[in-house]
Design a protein that fits this description.
- Helices cover 41% and strands 17% of the residues.
- By secondary structure, the protein is an alpha/beta fold.
- The protein has two domains: 6-125, P-loop containing nucleotide triphosphate hydrolases (Rossmann fold, 3-Layer(aba) Sandwich), CATH 3.40.50.300; 147-414, no CATH class.
- A six-stranded mixed beta sheet has the order 8-9-10-11-13-12. The chain has a five-stranded parallel beta sheet with strand order 2-3-4-1-5, with helices on one face.
- The chain is globular, with a radius of gyration of 22 Å.
- The model has no long low-confidence stretch (mean pLDDT 93).
- It comes from bioreactor metagenome.
């Protein structure tokens, strides 16, 4: 079983008065239930997913919750909104009850929380496994910080750059990265006893369950066919700028329907829309976002694809991993892509309090100087200092392309 970085954060939070209600949100099968049950074995586990078994809980008063379930884990709590009201009442009337609420619908859960639990809870998103988590073997193992996480925490690049080939975890990192690119980061497919065919079968079943259950929580579909077409089209377009007219045309739906379906995919933790950077914050809202699937295994499963990744798929996989590694408490920055009128494109611009880190992503085995051409002079466009720029690729050599641009293996940056 893989260790989770969020585990210690959640346990420590639960010891404080502000941690009496903790919400773990995230896609189905990211490990929310496992994390909650292993971290809080003294809590009673209540599954709210089955409409038959959840009905008795809806009749409990605040007093009954406090007496019968003073500490409880409520799984898929967004399926029964009245329970959130009950938890609120128990919280307000008694000082001792503690609850862990689990949910797989960002929209439904957060809408209910906003209405009922505002100011009473702490919310954490549990993403699929990060690469450092994939590299662990035991639940109680410490998860090592990646080079990226160390960089955004303020550590010096020169101290982090000894040859990756000499790292004691080099072989494990390469293996984890290969697994991630092919099968993604869901805990179930990280089981080392599974064959590759078993992993693909799990991914296909996951996608089927997502269509049959999760997406129907967000909307009442007369037919799923248009959404399935949209899902497949977005999987093909990962790593591309969002063009709603093209998406609508490819999926044979109206443009406003394409927008709605893409919103569903985002709210259910399937895709991320990387917003464009601009000096003017208002302009960022009017420019075109870039679409990235949050998990390469799911993206490939939707397409029933095996074999080599495309350049766009590799870019999406790297950006999704960076995104996951910024979802832990303490990161206050923002992620953008950049595209200028004169054709300059930067795959990822990471905004920190003290400046920016720019990232170009290439699937090449051999980085050349021209791969960094869009990074040259980038500092003249920005409203904060450019801390450093990176070209991430499959080239195993670390190269200083200039004083401010370093090329390194993507796997080294992410582990």
């Amino acid at each position: 079983m893989k260790a989770r970085t969020l585990k210690d954060v959640v346990v420590q939070k639960s010891k404080h008065k502000s941690g009496r209600i903790i919400i773990l949100s995230g896609a189905r099968q990211t490990g929310k239930t496992t994390l909650a049950r292993l971290s809080f074995p003294e809590y009673k586990y209540l599954s709210i997913e089955d409409p038959i078994t959840r009905e008795p809980f809806t009749r409990l008063s605040a007093d009954q919750w406090a007496i019968q379930y003073p500490k409880a884990i409520l799984d898929e709590v967004q399926k029964e909104p009245v329970l959130i009201e009950s938890i609120k009442s128990a919280y307000d009337q008694f000082e001792t009850p503690k609850y862990i609420l689990l949910g797989s619908s960002q929209f439904l859960l957060l809408q209910q929380v906003k209405e009922s639990l505002a100011g009473r809870c702490t919310i954490y998103d549990l993403m699929p496994l990060t690469l450092p988590e994939i590299m662990t073997n035991e639940w109680d193992t410490s998860v090592q910080e990646s080079m990226f996480r160390k960089l955004i925490s303020g550590e010096s690049l020169t101290e982090l750059l000894p040859s990756f080939l000499l790292y004691p975890t080099h072989a494990a990192a390469i293996q984890a990265f290969s697994h991630y690119l092919n099968f993604g980061g869901y805990p179930a497919v990280a089981d080392e006893s599974l064959s590759d065919d078993d992993r693909r079968e799990w991914l296909y079943n996951y996608i089927r369950t997502y269509l049959e259950r999760d997406i129907r929580d967000l909307a009442d579909f007369r037919s799923l066919d248009p959404f399935v077409k949209t899902q497949k089209t977005t999987a093909l377009l990962t790593g591309s700028l969002v063009n709603f007219s093209q998406l609508a045309r490819e999926a044979d739906i109206a443009a406003n329907t394409a927008r709605r379906f893409l919103n569903y995919l985002e709210l259910s933790y399937q895709v991320i829309l990387l917003q464009p950077w601009a000096k003017n914050n208002l302009k960022r809202l009017t420019k075109t976002p870039k679409l990235h699937y949050l998990d390469p295994g799911i993206q490939r499963g939707i397409l029933r694809k095996q074999g080599e990744l495309t350049g766009n798929e590799f870019e999406s996989a790297v950006i999704a991993e960076i995104y996951k590694q910024t979802r832990f408490p303490g990161f206050t920055g923002n992620l953008y892509h950049l595209k200028t009128a004169d054709g300059r494109e930067i795959d990822l611009l990471i905004e920190l309090e003290n400046g920016y880190i720019a990232v170009e992503i290439k699937m090449t085995q051999r980085v050349r100087s021209e791969d960094a051409r869009h990074l040259n002079g980038l500092e003249t466009l920005l409203d904060k200092p450019l801390i450093h720029s990176f070209v991430l690729s499959n080239d195993m050599d670390v190269k200083m392309l200039s004083k401010s641009i370093t090329a390194m293996p993507a796997v080294m940056f992410l582990t």
